[in-house]
């Protein structure tokens, strides 16, 4: 006699049964490493959490992550309801303020005009920008634990082909990533870095390592370390809607700042881009040894924080608005 396996029935569950509140329940759940990986696997992205409720002017973006293959920012916005115009506007505002290269809009249900809007953004954007529309569903079989499902309803044009290229590139980059992890691990654990206010004690997988967030919001200012095997740099990175205004404000005190630091800095307004930076650099791997390189990075990161912190924290938004409305320098 043939035995018949008894099967359960898949039951769809209301999202609010698992996450009553979007900000208090769903966003913290998604920000967990295993859940962010589940989303990344669905989209074909490798990402690492950068921030939850990331400030953008007077608003907050749900999740900001970093693309660990291509290095850009990934903005994730959540909506446990049907999509609406308000969230579409928020997403574009946050993407511009954070200079995000990839945008993931998650919702219970995508209305056709909003799915079409995501498709349109992909059509008119260059390949470095990616927009995804993702419907979130929740299922269970009998009394089983709830199981989430991400259904991609909109994605970049030719994403499948680009994904193959990214996968091949990811394999080639794996060894390089591990080298950077090892390098920054040694730096973080070194005596030289012991006094730094590192943003995270998790070693990054690239040549950039964020040290300290000096200001958030309208003009986000942070100190970073950078090593490309040729040059080691300490960078004051300015981004956000008023990045140029903040850079111009600091430029007024350029001579004073350089006198305090005892050296000439590299000032790059980066016109045409949404960020600006101020940096100092030295040769990397110049034969003085890694300990000397770590000492240089740590000392200049501390000096940058001391010199720039009071100058960026004390600037109010009204002053930045006034500066941003001034004519662009010739």
TrEMBL record:
<dbReference type="InterPro" id="IPR011856">
    <property type="entry name" value="tRNA_endonuc-like_dom_sf"/>
</dbReference>
<feature type="domain" description="DUF4268">
    <location>
        <begin position="182"/>
        <end position="311"/>
    </location>
</feature>
<protein>
    <recommendedName>
        <fullName>DUF4268 domain-containing protein</fullName>
    </recommendedName>
</protein>
<dbReference type="GO" id="GO:0003676">
    <property type="term" value="F:nucleic acid binding"/>
</dbReference>
<dbReference type="InterPro" id="IPR025364">
    <property type="entry name" value="DUF4268"/>
</dbReference>
<dbReference type="Pfam" id="PF14088">
    <property type="entry name" value="DUF4268"/>
</dbReference>
